[in-house]
Amino acid sequence: MAELHPTIARVTQRVIERSKATRTAYLDLMARETDRHGDRSAYGCSNLAHAYAGAVEDQKTLAFTRGQNIGIVTAYNDMLSAHQPYARFPDAMKIYAREVGATAQVAGGVPAMCDGVTQGMDGMELSLFSRDTIALSTAVSLSHAVFDSTALLGICDKIVPGLVIGALRFGHLPSIFIPSGPMPSGIANKEKQKTRQLYAEGKVGREELLKSEMGSYHSPGTCTFYGTANSNQMMMEMMGLQLPGSSFVPPNTPLRSQLTRAAVHRLTQISRKGADPRPMGEVVDEKAILNACIGLLATGGSTNHAIHLPAMARAAGVQIDWADLDELSSVVPLIARVYPNGSGDVNHFHAAGGMGYIIRELLGAGLCHGDILTVAEGGFAAYATEPYLDGDALAFRPAPEVSHDPAMLSTVAQPFQPDGGMRLVQGNLGRATFKSSSVEKERWTIEAPALVFNSQEEVQAAFKAGELERDCVVVVRFQGPRANGMPELHKLTPPLGVLQDKGFKVALVTDGRMSGASGKVPAAIHVTPEALAGGALALVENGDIIRVCAETGTLEVKADLSTRTAATPPVGAMGVGRELFAMFRAGADGAERGGSAMLALAGL
């Protein structure tokens, strides 16, 4: 393990200093929770009888043996392909727990929505705040306080961050994330992307588009592109919250079953009653959070985590911002190209060397913290391995020293890009995220007249009418957390891609989100402050010259905004339950803080 890079050391020390008061308060709370809720023997017999009544086979063990009890929080539903395999997990996990004299109970379920289903639809306006809802549901699930550890079953976009936030408020307990794995690879990603663009141009019909999409999303398991869901899995390994190499093992395979079994057994070892206590609140510290940031940069992960990482960090008393990400990005090279940043998907990534290879490269170059506490035995060095079956037994071997696919996995010495490709751009329009790793370098700087819209539907209508056939910076505002819940604007990608392919200089500036699967069009996203919260985007007019430059970190409009009146925001819509989330919108803080009403109102 090499000496830590001085820039990473500097950022780490800055985060530690910034977080001193909040982190101390968090650890003090966890110490009090350990004293108050660390042992269910403090509960009365009637309380415990209610908790044990449904346990059937495990009642005697729970009541008299007092073996360890694992609380399972599950995001199972069979509408999400990634979560469909979880239907069978609790029954299997109960058997695995009994093997070591423990018990397991489903503590509760959390909602799990699919952004792929709601893209461009009204339901997408609930998406970001589903993270807060999941965190709250996790807290309700664990509030019974009859558990010695927590098994977290969740994979996709807001689900993992929500589970992390909720479980961290019970950080006196150890927690392990247990994934289910990706679906088999479908049609070639370039073919899918081409069909989407042809559909946007009106050259193929809906039937052909649907056939293409179903050829990609076709069976149980996580979607195989490297978007937010698979970035979640990467980050859980980088933080030491999953077993090594467990992210991308396919569902319903013997190796996946053995990894789940090992996770259950490990929970009994790292609980307060086990031989090696490792509470989640100690695992997730400043260094673990920064490891997640570093992994995101090194692999070209989802821009959505520029919002989720600050929110997760706050739940553990850690304060990070986009300047930290930007500075880390300046020294962390891009060493993975996974679709949409490359041609192969996460199955190809795993076969090429996967997470073990990435972590070995980063540790070897001093580009991540090797001294973090993890749920795995052996510390973070254990994550530079890959799991396999030795007969029927789970075993681990060193990760490959050489990439099996140099077009997908490179080295720190010869990276795809010298930096991590997630840059802070800022100026008189605010602060925003620019994912340079997915954009050709000659497009990092765009200066053009603004075309201003208040929704992605307006952009699509203008595109179809031929009104965007020019060099332009498309501004889509009133899309932040307070305005409409900050939906992803993924449906903007195909039309803007068409304009770019026609030779126009085009960029996007928005206070909304773009999917972790967004691609080649330069975009300044998550602009904060948002238009509805006094942001300058509300003052921009058609024809204003806007400059977006990832090279210099610039986001500015060349116009005098001082005499202008802010545009009137669209009237808030009702339907699909959006009206029920009014309190989340009203209380939400800015994107750089995580876009959370729950954390803001809790004073975290």
TrEMBL record:
<dbReference type="GO" id="GO:0005829">
    <property type="term" value="C:cytosol"/>
</dbReference>
<dbReference type="InterPro" id="IPR000581">
    <property type="entry name" value="ILV_EDD_N"/>
</dbReference>
<comment type="function">
    <text>Catalyzes the dehydration of 6-phospho-D-gluconate to 2-dehydro-3-deoxy-6-phospho-D-gluconate.</text>
</comment>
<dbReference type="Pfam" id="PF00920">
    <property type="entry name" value="ILVD_EDD_N"/>
</dbReference>
<keyword id="KW-0311">Gluconate utilization</keyword>
<feature type="binding site">
    <location>
        <position position="156"/>
    </location>
    <ligand>
        <name>[4Fe-4S] cluster</name>
    </ligand>
</feature>
<dbReference type="InterPro" id="IPR037237">
    <property type="entry name" value="IlvD/EDD_N"/>
</dbReference>
<keyword id="KW-0004">4Fe-4S</keyword>
<dbReference type="GO" id="GO:0051539">
    <property type="term" value="F:4 iron, 4 sulfur cluster binding"/>
</dbReference>
<feature type="domain" description="Dihydroxy-acid/6-phosphogluconate dehydratase N-terminal">
    <location>
        <begin position="69"/>
        <end position="377"/>
    </location>
</feature>
<dbReference type="InterPro" id="IPR042096">
    <property type="entry name" value="Dihydro-acid_dehy_C"/>
</dbReference>
<keyword id="KW-0479">Metal-binding</keyword>
<keyword id="KW-0456">Lyase</keyword>
<dbReference type="InterPro" id="IPR020558">
    <property type="entry name" value="DiOHA_6PGluconate_deHydtase_CS"/>
</dbReference>
<dbReference type="GO" id="GO:0046872">
    <property type="term" value="F:metal ion binding"/>
</dbReference>
<dbReference type="GO" id="GO:0009255">
    <property type="term" value="P:Entner-Doudoroff pathway through 6-phosphogluconate"/>
</dbReference>
<feature type="domain" description="Dihydroxy-acid/6-phosphogluconate dehydratase C-terminal">
    <location>
        <begin position="409"/>
        <end position="594"/>
    </location>
</feature>
<dbReference type="InterPro" id="IPR004786">
    <property type="entry name" value="6-phosphgluc_deHydtase"/>
</dbReference>
<dbReference type="InterPro" id="IPR056740">
    <property type="entry name" value="ILV_EDD_C"/>
</dbReference>
<protein>
    <recommendedName>
        <fullName>Phosphogluconate dehydratase</fullName>
        <ecNumber>4.2.1.12</ecNumber>
    </recommendedName>
</protein>
<comment type="pathway">
    <text>Carbohydrate metabolism; Entner-Doudoroff pathway.</text>
</comment>
<dbReference type="GO" id="GO:0004456">
    <property type="term" value="F:phosphogluconate dehydratase activity"/>
</dbReference>
<keyword id="KW-0408">Iron</keyword>
<keyword id="KW-0119">Carbohydrate metabolism</keyword>
<dbReference type="Pfam" id="PF24877">
    <property type="entry name" value="ILV_EDD_C"/>
</dbReference>
<comment type="similarity">
    <text>Belongs to the IlvD/Edd family.</text>
</comment>
<dbReference type="GO" id="GO:0019521">
    <property type="term" value="P:D-gluconate metabolic process"/>
</dbReference>
<feature type="binding site">
    <location>
        <position position="223"/>
    </location>
    <ligand>
        <name>[4Fe-4S] cluster</name>
    </ligand>
</feature>
<keyword id="KW-0411">Iron-sulfur</keyword>
